[in-house]
Amino acid sequence: MHEHRVAHALRARGWTVHPCGQGTYPEVVREALRRTRSALRQFPDLIAARAGEIVTIDAKDRMPSTDTNRYSISTSTVNAGLQFTAVHAPTPLYYVFGDLKVLTPAEVLHYTEHALRHSSGAYHLVSTCHAHSFDNVFGPADARAA
């Protein structure tokens, strides 16, 4: 599971990580959320802290596209992420993709403002070249922690 891989990578960098969001809810709650348009469906998967700093993570697996070198992020995910970021400022929300590259909701919106959009308008397509490396965002792995 991608969330576990991200949590392990964060712990290797000295972060204390705890799950949150849909993955922590009982099946009855997850099923009810699937039937709504609530922003709770888009709640981050992980919360992490290190040296007084706190971050939230939304793990996005099965990305990028192997054909186009773009990430495809749903508009509802980006909108919920922007709202989450505004409500919980200054705590950042990071999308960590399957290749362990990182973007924020604001960056997704910025990089797609003048870019090719999915024909349905339901997705933001972001070139993978805009993403940050995991180490640049969360620090390098500590050899002692690995």
Describe the structure concisely for a colleague.
By secondary structure, this protein is of the alpha+beta class. The protein contains five helices and eight strands; from the N terminus they run αβαβββαββαββα.
Structure description:
The structure is a single chain. Helix 3 packs across helix 4. 30% of the residues lie in helices and 25% in strands. With 146 residues, it is an alpha+beta fold. The mean pLDDT is 88.
Helix fraction?
A: 25-40%
Mean pLDDT: 88
User: How far is the first residue's CA from the last residue's CA?
Assistant: 19 Å
Order of helices and strands: HEHEEEHEEHEEH
Roughly what fraction of the amino acids lie in strands?
25-35%
Radius of gyration: 15 Å
Total beta strands: 8
Question: Low-confidence segments, ≥5 residues, pLDDT <50?
Answer: none
Structural class: alpha+beta
Strand order of the largest sheet: 1-2-3-5-6-8
Please summarize the sheet with the most strands.
6 strands, mixed
Note the total helix count: 5
Query: Quick one: overall form?
Result: globular
List the helices and strands and how they pair.
Elements: H1 2-11, E1 16-19, H2 27-34, E2 46-50, E3 53-60, E4 70-74, H3 75-87, E5 93-97, E6 101-103, H4 105-112, E7 123-127, E8 132-133, H5 134-138
Helix pairs in contact: 3-4
Task: List the defining traits of the structure above.
146 residues, alpha+beta, six-stranded mixed β-sheet, two-stranded antiparallel sheet, 5 helices, globular
